[in-house]
Model the fold of this input.
Amino acid sequence: MSTPEISVIIPVYNGGAYIEPAIASVVAQTLQPLEFIVVDDGSTDGSAERVAAIETPFPKTILHQANKFQSAARNLAAKHARGKFLAFLDHDDIWYPEHLEMLVAPLVADERYGWSYCDIDEIDASGRLVALNMLGKLDPGVQHPKTSIFNMLGADMYIFPSAAVVRRDAMLQVGGFDERLSGYEDDDLFLRLFRVGWLNAYLPMPLVRYRRHPASSAFSDRMWISRDIFADKLLQNFPDDPVLVRFFVRDIIAPRFYEAGRSEYIRHFPHARWALCARAVQVMRRFQPMMDLPNGQRLLHWFEHRVMAHPRMLSAFYPVLRRLTSLPYQRWRS
Done:
C-alpha cells in the first residue's frame, strides 16, 4: 500500500513561545506527512519568521492572512493542501510520534470514515504534564466514537482539532469550518460531517499533548460569541418534532446550554469576573423557558436567576459560596 498523503496544518497567532516544539513533534512522526502548511494569522510576535527558520524533511508552506482566527486559517490551508488527509495541530499543542500513523490507519482501511480522533494528555503552559487520558475525565457521559445525534447534541463532543485527522474530500463537502466560530467550530464541523453520513473512528489512547493555559482561545470572549452562534445553529437545525417525539430543543439543547451558563457562572464568580457572570445569567435566562420543568423547579430557577444576577452582592457571602463552588459540580447542583 502506498504511503498515505497527509497535509499537516498549523494555524499560528502570536505562538512564538510554543511553535518550535509543535513543529518538532511533526518532524518526529513515524509516518512523515506529504507537506506541512502553516498559516500565519496576523501574528505580531515574529511567529512566521520562527517558522521560516525551521528546517523540515518535507515541503513547508507558509501562508499569511490578517487575523481572522483559527477557523479561517484552517480553511485557507485546506484549500491549498495536496494531501488526501488533513491533520490539524494548534500551535501550542504537541503530537506523540505515532500520532499520524495511528490516526490515518482507519481512514485508509475504510473510505466510509471521514475522520478519526484520539484521547489527549493535558500539559500546562510550561509543557509539564497535568493529566493523562483526559477525555473520560472531562465528561464521562460523552460517547466515543460518535454514533448518535442525540449524544452529540446533548454535550460538548470533546474532539480536539489537534487530536483529529480528517479526510479532505469530506471536509470540503460540508464547507469546512464555520469561520464565524472561534470556539465550538470543531463540534460544528464534526456534527455536519456526521449528518451527511461520514463515519468516525476513535482511538482510546492519547496521541497528543494538549496545552491548556490562560492565553488559550477557550478563555477568550470569542468563546462566548461562538457559543451563542453555535446554539442558534442548533436551534434552527434541530427544532422539536412532536410527531416523531423528538424534542431536541426542550430535552437536549436547552438543558445543555442552560447548564453551560450555570457552570460558567460558577467558574467566574470566585475570580470576581462580574461581566462574565452577568453574561452567564443571560444564557440561563434565555434557555430556561425552552425547557419543560415542573412548576417547583421553574420557580427555583427563577429565584436562582434573580440572585445570580447580582454577583457583587453575592460576593459578601463569598466564603460560603467558595465552599459550594469547590465541590464537584454535580454535587453542588443537587
